């Protein structure tokens, strides 16, 4: 197994909406931990018997490969795990990976290599389609579907940031949502792709489509203070990313100072009152 870092194999354009800083990858690991907590330790909801040997799993938009490393610890060494991402510079080094994990470079808006098509028992992707418009999301799912073997499964997980608690107790969270919603809209992105996943997978020809809606509890709303704090830190990091928009997106109506001023207000509000938002996990089977 190897990590692909040959520049000739890299796509021309990095379409990721967030920063490529170490802080962003720390945010993604925080997100992984509280999502895993919310899913009661489960990483895969699709009904796959991982006691079988020789199964193949693809994690699309894998980031640094952290999700796969966690999955490998649960499954053992008999299955082949492949991660793909457009930015290989942040891959976990090969000598730190389990032997059954390989990482390679790929753009989700391109067809997958022929040697990967129809070869995976599970194709997994999460928290990517927020950085796409609807048409690009449908295209990315179609390409992902090429990798699922007949009878195999696809599992997608994405958010719905419209579904926060609002009202007079939550002015900072409402302001946060409006800033993020405005930025995403101006970039042509989608704040809430999660509720559309069932429709998109059904239209892509998948069968046995199922969904679990998760409630991500922020700050004081969480029964576990540590996990609630992780969600708060993640949201503050998202807000920090919006500062770049204030400087780089023409016409963005919020100044860097406005965003900076909101950060302590949001942190205090989540600590005292809490909040939540929803994410959608959807899994479906490719017909035989």
TrEMBL record:
<dbReference type="InterPro" id="IPR029063">
    <property type="entry name" value="SAM-dependent_MTases_sf"/>
</dbReference>
<protein>
    <submittedName>
        <fullName>S-adenosyl-L-methionine-dependent methyltransferase</fullName>
    </submittedName>
</protein>
<dbReference type="GO" id="GO:0008168">
    <property type="term" value="F:methyltransferase activity"/>
</dbReference>
<dbReference type="GO" id="GO:0032259">
    <property type="term" value="P:methylation"/>
</dbReference>
<keyword id="KW-0808">Transferase</keyword>
<dbReference type="Pfam" id="PF13489">
    <property type="entry name" value="Methyltransf_23"/>
</dbReference>
<keyword id="KW-0489">Methyltransferase</keyword>
<feature type="region of interest" description="Disordered">
    <location>
        <begin position="1"/>
        <end position="22"/>
    </location>
</feature>
């Amino acid at each position: 197994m190897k990590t692909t870092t040959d520049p000739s194999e890299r796509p021309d354009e990095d379409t990721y909406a967030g920063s490529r800083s170490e802080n962003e990858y720390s945010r993604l690991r925080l997100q992984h931990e509280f999502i895993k907590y919310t899913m009661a330790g489960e990483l895969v909801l699709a009904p796959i018997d991982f006691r079988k040997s020789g199964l193949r799993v693809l994690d699309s938009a894998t980031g640094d490969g952290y999700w796969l490393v966690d999955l490998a610890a649960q499954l053992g060494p008999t299955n082949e795990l492949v991660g793909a991402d457009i930015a290989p510079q942040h891959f976990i080094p090969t000598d730190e990976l389990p032997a059954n994990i390989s990482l390679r470079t790929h753009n989700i808006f391109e067809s997958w290599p022929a040697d990967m098509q129809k070869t995976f028992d599970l194709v997994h992707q999460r928290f990517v389609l927020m950085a796409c418009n609807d048409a690009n999301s449908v295209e990315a799912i179609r390409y992902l579907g090429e990798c699922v073997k007949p009878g195999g499964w696809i599992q997608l997980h994405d958010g719905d940031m419209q579904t926060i608690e609002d009202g007079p107790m939550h002015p900072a969270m409402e302001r946060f949502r409006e800033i993020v919603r405005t930025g995403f809209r101006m970039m042509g992105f989608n704040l809430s792709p999660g509720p559309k996943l069932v429709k998109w997978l059904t239209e892509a020809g998948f069968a046995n489509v199922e969904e679990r809606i998760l409630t991500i509890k922020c700050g004081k709303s969480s029964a576990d203070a540590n996990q609630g704090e992780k969600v708060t830190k993640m949201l503050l990091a998202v807000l920090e990313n919006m500062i770049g928009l204030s400087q780089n997106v023409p016409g963005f109506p919020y100044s860097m100072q406005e965003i900076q001023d909101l950060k302590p207000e949001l942190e205090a509000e989540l600590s005292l009152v809490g909040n939540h938002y929803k994410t959608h996990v959807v899994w479906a089977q490719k017909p035989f």
